[in-house]
Amino acid sequence: MSDDSAFAPTVSVEDDHDDTRLTLFEGDDGELTLDQRRCLIVILKHPVVTDERAEWATLVRDSRVIKSRLNDLFLDLVIDRERGIAYKVQIRSGEFGSVPPLLRDAAFTREETILLVVLRQRHLAARGSGLPRAHVDRDELIAGIDTFRPSSATDQAGDQKRSAAAVDALVRSGVLAKAGSDDRFVISDVIERILSIDRLHELHAWLKEQNSPDAVRPAASDDIDEEDGE
User: Fold this and answer.
1) pTM for this one?
2) Cβ-count burial 146-171 (b if 16+ within 10 Å, e if not)
């Protein structure tokens, strides 16, 4: 007579509820902890994640599992620990063929493009002075955008609204981080990845040309392309 007690009973994945540590809601089949899930949402939602975010520690510690979840979506994770930045990139094709992209191609607006030039210049000036980071005020940024407006610009109210929106957009993307108040910011080192020195010079020359009396101001800018989420 065989001894069935020598064998452990087979339990299907669907019926295995012994480990409830990761169950956060009814019917939850997820395999990540609460901190890991929050971290994954942040890296999916934001173009850039910096070491100033609360999720940074989880991202660095559990980078392998976060990267695995992104890979399932044909995304890859890039972490620069030295500079304290991380972002995701779209895997578009390979031996498996092409895949439908999850990230959409987007472009910075004219005001955002100008602001990136202003921020890159301030970042360079701070580094040249031996400062680790550059701090800027909201009014200073909006004034910096205004210096690149052509004299023919007459929609002051609209320009101010677009400038304010540009500042808010770069805060959301992680290029600017709040420093003590809603109107005081520190420039993230990620600006170096977004705008190289050569590209900075090109854009600066282009903006000066746009400000010439004969220039025709475009309705929108597609000067710097970005992948939403990258």
Assistant:
1) 0.57
2) eebbeeeeeeeeebeebbeebbebbe
